[in-house]
Structures
1.
Amino acid sequence: MPRYYEDKPEGGACAGVKEDLGACLLQSACVLQEGKSPRQCLKEGNCRALQYSFFECKRSMLDARSRFRGRKGY
């Protein structure tokens, strides 16, 4: 599911995960069929794995150990 862009400039540390999370929410049945907002669908538990990956990426930006290990995410 991750998308890798060679020609696209860097948009930040967690830009790839954030973009994939947004695409997952917009393509979910919750948004398309039920007509709910992506925020409501995220609270209901859709795209949970990407939400957790985005959280881990953001948390690794604040972690001092990430200097040695590198940031999580793509």
2.
Amino acid sequence: MIPYEVIEAKEILHEGIAELLADVNRIKERMGIDRYDTVQPISLVQQNLRVTLHNILGDSYNTMEDIQRLRQTFENARTYIRELETNHAG
């Protein structure tokens, strides 16, 4: 059985990653990058976030160690996206 703390963390991180994806969409629009682009670095981050978002609700993250890895992924993506927002504020 998955501990409640893990389930709760998964839900919070799922929401956080969904918000990051919305931020990525806004940044891509501001930068004039096609929403279906798959070549630009931000598009690669977007694709990785989509995969992670999908995997969160599956069996990929069932322990606190898994959650720690997921948090690190989230923090890294958030830092990158915040830097892009700062550099491309419009």
3.
Amino acid sequence: MSAINPDPIPEPTPEEVARGLAELERHVASQAPAAPSPAELPGATRRVLRLRAEVAEAHQLADLQADDTPLMLDTPKVRKRRKQAQEAARLHALAQDPQMRAWQAARMRRLLVSVAMVVLALSLAWSTAGVQQFAAEGAPAWSPAWLFAWLVEPFMSLALLVVVGARAYMGTRGQPITNRILTRIEGLFLALTFGMNAWPHLPWSLPEGETFTVGGVVLHIIGPTVAVAIVTALPIILAAFANLDHGTRAPLTGLTYGGNAGVSTALIERARTLIASGELPAEPSAYRLQRTLGCAMDDARAVRDALRNDPTTGKD
């Protein structure tokens, strides 16, 4: 009877050997006695424990300080400053926009015109007292002549303000008035106001016993002087505003004319029909063709040339 040999035990693989060693190490570590705490170590005084805690804390802080993530975050102050910078950049870009520049110029022009008109009205009101003294000619107070003398300067001022206001408004619309008649009217009213304010205070007009002083004359002519300055400067300022270039103007190009190339045959036939019906002359001008046909000047010139070169065109 033969003996039965059992199967040989297979050799363990390297992975199985590594797992076995790891299990053995964990088992030995679990069975090892616990390490004594720092407080249980011999000679662990209070100072030693405090220093050991500081060293451990320093090691942990050193590990955390190596991470720059907190430094990459924006603080509230940084975010606020960044928002202000973005707003300033957008406002600067908006200020360079032609429409924004035109709006700013229009607003400034209205402000200057308003201030100028207020100053002009105040200066003319200032001279009212001087004109009243001139017009009253020594009439008793509250007499009809004395009362009507107060109306001389207001109605002249209103007439002057009508002219100045019209010139100012037309200047704001880009159509300044340069008519010499209006300029002479302004000069006449201002000269009358100036003369009536200064005349009673000149040396030959002073009553006996009064001495002439330059300050008295200057005090009474300051109103008309300011009025003259405003009336003279305002049209110049408005003309400068009207000539402002806000960056929206396209460069001017000269007239182009390409003969009868590309001209519509329908325009030529329509012109022939109008000539045959008598609504157009036999040889109409380009301007007449433009007005009648409602086309561009280049097309009108081309139609005119085509009609002239066509021997069949003419009056019946």
